[in-house]
Every structure is written in structure tokens, then in C-alpha cells.
TrEMBL record:
Involved in coproporphyrin-dependent heme b biosynthesis. Catalyzes the oxidation of coproporphyrinogen III to coproporphyrin III. The keyword Flavoprotein applies. The keyword Cytoplasm applies. Its cofactor is FAD. The lineage of its organism: Bacteria, Pseudomonadati, Verrucomicrobiota, Opitutia, Opitutales. It is an enzyme of class 1 (oxidoreductase). It is found in: Cytoplasm. One of its GO terms (biological process) is heme biosynthetic process. Belongs to the protoporphyrinogen/coproporphyrinogen oxidase family. Coproporphyrinogen III oxidase subfamily. Residues 16-454 form the Amine oxidase domain. One of its GO terms (molecular function) is oxygen-dependent protoporphyrinogen oxidase activity. This is Coproporphyrinogen III oxidase. Its EC number is 1.3.3.15.
Length: 457
């Protein structure tokens, strides 16, 4: 193990992954320099308080699992944690043009109108499936179809994937995007029995059940702002775009900050930038871009509309987390989050807030529309699904041209490139949402892993 106190580590990217890695390395005595090409740290995590509203432009909540709890404790943020409203346990999916509550127990599943008799019978029968060892990857939709019904794909898997990835289950790899299902089938045959066994094992290991949903009093940006503030003075470089890595012992980085080209030497380099930025990075003296093909990872565009209304403008009780829309329902929205129900103080008194997501792999062209064009496109959906009447009294539109990396079939070709580059250059470490998972907890875990690897070699 290297002497941490004499190690200078460069972290490229000040999203949640890079900030987490930098924070833990600094706590262990390393000297860190974090490069962020944008004007502020935090990546896609952005919270804004304005005119009595509090809205998120990126992720809206996070699961309060072991790694997040520890990070919150290390940052001294426990008093700022806000648990989700108990009503958030109620989730909805659109069927027949209206929100239907997702069943949360076996008795509720038997009674629900969301699924028909054939699908309801397929679940207990699936538990008798025998283990199978697949030699090739398959899509999430294909896996679920082979165990259950197309209806379950249409009204459970499809909206779930829209909510998590803004993606298409016909294209997502089970092995890379839902690995627990891949392993469950290999070990137990039955997806249900495999998932039950996995939950039992996690409980025995002290990891508990499904982590609760939380945010912070000032929104999720509290987490990234605090991480950045806890870094040693002068270690975070904003508006600093790293252009070239010259591997060696030490490594040399060349970056441009505020129009001026600079360079420096580092004992280790952590790459925690998005796939598009990594694709542009020159590595070596000959202008090589070994990660150029990362540009081909699908990243669908997504628009997020935060809409504020007077309470009397919305007929729906908004008694839940929100609702997702299956593709077969042929709507223009991917989902509607009941933001002012989910957490307190997201809307002024007498008002409610909805966050609407549009685009993704399903309808990428819609995401690129202007705010007024989007409102016109989703007006009927808002009326039909949430009983909205009239124009919003508050609106904020966030457009993400390359929103979420899609772990599609064949994703191993990109994973192998990460591994090959690390193997080629000692003390170069790569992580983030293009490699280690797309959720905030995934990215925090990635940052922790990167920090430990930088310390251990």
C-alpha cells in the first residue's frame, strides 16, 4: 500500500462519484485535485429553491442504504435528512387511461386490475422453474417474457425501466443492467425464488430490506455541495477541462482552465467523468483516444418539467410517489412524480407540484421541444391522468441532451475497454455511471471503490 500522505491523486469529474472519491481520499491524508469542466460541482444533481418552490433538475430522491447512511454521517448531515412521505409507498401505473395502484402484497396482487388472470397465475407457477445457465446475454424484456407473460412486460417492466433508465426493456441487457435477475435465474431457475434467496442473504448479512427513500431539507444538492465544501481549500478546479492524460510514473495531465492551458503531475488518476467526456480524452503522446467508442453508448435525451399549480387546479389526490406510463398506453409522458407529496416544502401553501418526464428511448424527439411545445404535447395526459386544469402557475424546464447511459445488449465491449485501459496503465482508475451503475447510491459506491483502489496500489 502506498503512503497516503505523500500521494497526490487527480480526480477527473466532480459529479457524485468524483466528489465521493475525493472526499474519502482527502480524509485518508491524500492530496487531491478535482477537475470539473463545468462551473459548479455536483453533475446532474441540481436543487433550486425559488419563489417558495423547491425543485430538482436531476435525480429527485435516493435510497438510504448502508453506503449513503455512512456518507451522510461522515458529512454530518443526519439532521438534514428528510424521509419520504409514508404515502410514497403507493406507486401507480397507467392502465386504460388512468392511474392504477401497483399492488404491494400478494393479496393486493390477486385483486388488482393492473394484471389479468393469466399473469396472476404465472407468478406461482414460475417458482417451479429449474436453474438454467445461459451462455449468451438477453434483454430484460426477453427474460421476463420467458418466465411470465407479455402483459407483465408491458405493465410492470416497461414502465419501471422508463422510470429508472428512461429506457427500453427490449434493448437493456439483463446481465449488465439487472444483474440480480441474471444471477437469480442461474442459481435458482425461478426469478422469484432467486430474488427471495438474495433478500434473505442480505438480511443475514445485516443489510436489511429495501432502503427507505429520502432527500434533504434543501434538496439532493445538499449532498454534493457538502462534499465539495469539505474538500481541502484549493483542491476543486471549476471550468477546468482535462484534455490529455500522459500516463507514466507519475502521470501528467493537461487541462484548460478559463482559457489557459496548464499541466501537472500526479501519482494516480481517477476518471469519474461521463462517457462522452471520457470518449474525448486523449491518452498518450500520439493523440490516441482509446475510449472514443464510449460516444456510441446510447444516452437518450430527457426533458424534466417541474410544474406548480394551485391545489384546486389538480383533481387527483396525489396520494403517492407518482405514476409511470407504459408504452402500450401511447401517451406523451414517461411518468409524473407527485413532488409536493413526496417531500415537504416543495410547494407554497395552497399549491402542489408535479415533475413530468418526457422523451427517453421511447420518444426522444419529444424531449427536444421547447417548454411551450412540451406543455401543449402533454396537456391531455395531465388532464386525463391527474385531473389538471389550466396553466401552471410555476414552470421550470430542464433538458438533458444525453441523460442516462443505457446498459444495452453487448455492453461488455465498453466494460472491457475500461478494464483494458486500467491494466495497461498502473494507478489509473475508472468509474462512474458508465461503468458501475446509474443510480446515486451506485455512483457513491463507485466513488468509494475508486478511493480504496487508489489507496491500495
Amino acid at each position: 500500500m502506498s503512503d497516503a500522505t505523500s500521494t497526490h491523486v487527480a480526480i477527473v469529474g466532480a459529479g457524485i462519484t468524483g466528489l465521493t472519491a475525493a472526499f474519502h481520499l482527502a480524509r485518508r491524508g491524500c492530496r487531491v485535485t478535482v477537475f470539473e469542466k463545468g462551473p459548479q460541482p455536483g453533475g446532474s444533481i441540481r436543487s433550486t429553491a425559488e419563489e417558495g418552490w423547491l425543485y430538482e433538475s436531476g435525480p429527485n430522491s435516493l435510497q438510504y442504504g448502508k453506503d449513503i447512511k455512512q456518507l451522510v454521517s461522515d458529512l454530518g448531515l443526519e439532521s438534514s435528512v428528510v424521509p419520504a412521505n409514508p404515502l410514497a409507498k403507493r406507486r401507480f401505473v397507467v392502465r386504460g387511461g388512468k392511474f392504477v395502484q401497483v399492488p404491494s402484497s400478494p393479496p393486493a396482487f390477486l385483486k388488482t386490475s393492473l394484471f389479468g388472470l393469466r399473469t396472476k397465475l404465472s407468478l406461482p407457477l414460475e417458482m417451479f422453474s429449474r436453474p438454467r445457465v445461459r451462455t449468451t446475454d438477453l434483454s430484460l424484456a426477453e427474460l421476463v417474457r420467458s418466465h411470465f407473460t407479455q402483459e407483465l412486460v408491458d405493465y410492470a417492466v416497461n414502465p419501471l425501466v422508463a422510470g429508472i433508465y428512461a429506457g427500453d426493456p427490449e434493448k437493456l441487457s439483463v446481465r449488465h443492467s439487472f444483474r440480480m435477475l441474471w444471477e437469480a435465474e442461474r442459481s435458482h431457475g425461478s426469478l422469484i425464488r432467486g430474488m427471495m434467496a438474495g433478500a434473505k442473504a442480505r438480511k443475514a448479512a445485516g443489510e436489511g430490506g429495501i432502503p427507505p427513500i429520502v432527500s434533504f431539507t434543501g434538496g439532493l444538492q445538499t449532498l454534493t455541495d457538502t462534499l465539495a465544501a469539505k474538500l481541502p481549500a484549493g483542491s476543486l478546479k471549476l471550468n477546468a477541462a482535462v484534455e490529455t492524460l500522459l500516463p507514466g510514473q507519475p502521470h501528467r495531465l493537461v487541462w484548460k482552465q478559463d482559457g489557459q492551458t496548464q499541466s501537472g503531475e500526479f501519482d494516480a488518476v481517477v476518471l469519474a467523468a461521463p462517457a462522452g467526456a471520457l470518449a474525448q480524452l486523449t491518452i498518450g503522446t500520439l493523440g490516441e483516444r482509446p475510449l472514443a467508442s464510449l460516444e456510441n453508448i446510447p444516452h437518450p435525451p430527457v426533458s424534466s418539467l417541474f410544474l406548480g399549480y394551485r391545489r384546486d387546479q389538480v383533481a387527483h389526490p396525489l396520494d403517492g410517489f407518482g405514476g409511470l406510463v407504459p408504452a402500450v398506453e401511447r401517451r406523451n409522458v414517461l411518468g409524473i412524480l407527485f413532488s409536493s407529496t413526496l417531500f415537504p416544502n416543495r410547494a407554497p401553501d395552497g399549491h402542489v407540484a408535479l415533475t413530468v418526464f418526457i422523451g427517453g428511448m421511447r420518444q426522444p424527439e419529444l424531449a427536444r421541444l421547447t417548454s411551450s411545445e412540451l406543455l401543449a404535447k402533454i396537456d391531455q395526459d395531465l388532464r386525463d391522468l391527474a385531473g389538471v386544469s389550466g396553466a401552471p402557475v410555476f414552470l421550470r424546464h430542464t433538458f438533458w441532451p444525453r441523460a442516462i447511459p443505457q446498459y444495452v445488449l453487448g455492453y461488455e465491449r465498453w466494460q472491457e475497454q475500461f478494464t483494458a485501459l486500467e491494466n495497461r496503465h498502473a494507478r489509473l482508475f475508472i468509474g462512474g455511471n458508465a461503468r458501475d451503475g446509474i443510480s446515486v447510491p451506485d455512483c457513491v459506491k463507485s466513488g468509494l471503490r475508486l478511493a480504496e483502489r487508489a489507496l491500495d496500489k
